[in-house]
Amino acid sequence: MTEEELDAIEIESSKTVALTRFVDPNDREHPLMLRPHGKGLVMITLRPAHEVRTDTEYFKEIGESELDEEMVNLAVHIIEQKSGHFDPKELAGDRYQKALRHLVEQKVKGEKPVIPKAAEPAKVINLMDALRRSLETEGGETRKPAAPSSRRAATRHPAAG
Asked: Which end of the chain is more exposed for a tag (fewer CB within 10 A), N or C?
């Protein structure tokens, strides 16, 4: 083993991290944490307390209520139906940067850029009705929609306005 490999093993096994600072291209200083990972280091930008918010701020308007069993079953069904193999390559690259680079290359060549037409606005539909219809046709049976229960009506909260 080389001395560098021994050093990397020693750093990783020590379970220590390095804290430092760096200056970005906009001349702003940021605190960093460097931690060993395999043959290299992972750099994590640390945020000052004033930039970090607690989760209570985001969830304070959500009241306490019981989950609607039909909605839970529907969510589980959708998750099962949409689950599949994940290929991280599908997320690789920056599509915006690639399209921008292509546009610049067209302009440099003196070509007129091809700008795609804007999509037509989508028709607004009731998502729950569409999901129920989808489940009914998928199962090969037509089911009568369940009547709203008194339990569900009691757990509803008025809209904030």
From this structure: C
